Amino acid sequence: MHRSTRALVAILLAGTCLAPTAASAADGREAELMARLDKLEAEMSQLRADLASARHEQAAAAEDARAAIAATQDRTNETADKLAVIESKPPPDGFKVGAATIKLGGFVRVNTIASRWSDGDVTVGALGKEFYLPQQIPVGGGPGSQDLLVSARQTRISLGATTPVDGKELKGYIEFDFALATAPVGAQRATNPYTPTLRRGFIQYGGLLIGQEWSTFQNVAVLPESTDFVGPLEGTVFNRQAQVRYTHRLSPTLQFSVAIENPETEILLGSAASYTDIDDDIFPDAVGRLDWKPKVGDFSLAGIVRPLRVQDAGVRDSAVGWGVSAAGRVPFGLDQRHDFRFMVTYGHGIGRYLGLGYVADAVLPAPGQGLSVVDNLAGFAAVKIGWTPRLRSTITGSYQWAGYDDAIVINPLANKAAWSGAANLFWTVVKGFDLGMEYRHGVREIVNGETGSLDRLEFAAKYSF
């Protein structure tokens, strides 16, 4: 055999001998590779499972977060709604003592008053120095006079209590100020003391009122804003007194009041210019009033019938007085900031109810003669202009006239007529704190035709609580 052939055969034999060994090695590597693939697939499956679990947990957590946010928002909205309800309600008015609610109120007021009288001087401590009182304007051509006064006596305090009883409120109310007490002579030298005076004191249950209150004949709500204690005094009904009043609502806009009130006859003695209160009355004054509040404003119509009686110096006589009074307030303009106010009163023997008794109810001309009842006409009109929500002005005109019987002799110094005009400017600095200034010109006329005038500039600062 050729040497090369023997080599090829040897190689083939050798390969034949080695083949089983190589096949065995390949099978081992394949098994190892398959094991690794199985392990890798298992790990990938676990990874996919873990990833799916993580995504599920993340979605659940996100849902829980959204639910928590929504719940928090709901609680926030609920809290905001409750807060809005609380803020929309007025603050507590007063404080509780048992079943009663007690309220303390009033204001502190300081007035600076500069006055000039054309025909004379006003006595020390006179009320006419502290508020507009036409019956104290000097007449007769005397030398003019001036006066400056600073006072806090118009300060006021009130105390009220209400208790619910059988579905209604039982109310008690008292109110004091210092304005109508005559100042002691010399008070201004040191301490300026003033005596508290009762303004109002009554008990009210439902529509029934018993005690001292504004007369049912007067509509207090139409009085214009003024630095003065009253303002258009000669033109308005102005009276507080003890009474028994019942008020009944006829409809949402209409109510009727009827009252019997304390009687007091004021007379003018024919031989004197002074007025005298005759405390001989035996029947009360009877008053009725209708209040109407439509959308366009507030209106009232009141009527009074009163017995007049005198028993003095051997004279015993009686008469009947009567009167009617119409009043109203009509808002207008931007945000209803402006308004027009008025009162017109006519009567026979009602002088005590007008201008703090500027004229008498009746005249007792001379001993042996009977009462001569005085006719009365009074009124005022006022326009309020709201320049801004905090700045406002009021312009007022006021008038009163007395008609005496021509058949009797009247003291020439008795009051015959009075009129005044005023303009002011008020500024609400902050809620509850007001500053105001006002100019007023007033004239008094007596029976003999003589007149006297007053010019007054007044400043006021007021804190209400």
Quick structural gist:
The radius of gyration is 47 Å and the shape is elongated.
Strand content: over 45%
- Compute the CA-based radius of gyration: 47 Å
- Average pLDDT reading: 89
Low-confidence stretches: 15-19
**What is the H-and-E element order?**
HEEEEEEEEEEEEEEEEEEEEEE
Helix content: 10-25%
Number of helices: 1
Number of domains: 2
Q: What is the CATH class name of the largest domain?
A: Mainly Beta
- What coarse outline follows from CA principal-axis ratios? elongated
Tell me the major beta sheet: 16 strands, antiparallel, barrel
Number of strands: 22
CATH homologous superfamily identity of the largest domain: Porin
Q: Which structural class best describes the helix and strand composition?
A: alpha+beta
Oligomeric nature of the chains: single chain
Q: What does this entry look like structurally?
A:
The chain has about 475 residues and is an alpha+beta fold. It folds into two domains: about 1-90; about 95-465, Porin (Beta Barrel). About 20% of the residues lie in helices and about 45% in strands. The strands form two sheets. It has a 16-stranded antiparallel beta barrel with strand order 2-4-5-6-7-8-9-12-13-14-15-18-19-20-21-22. It starts with a helix and ends with a strand. The relative contact order is 0.11. The model is unreliable at about 15-20 (pLDDT under 50).
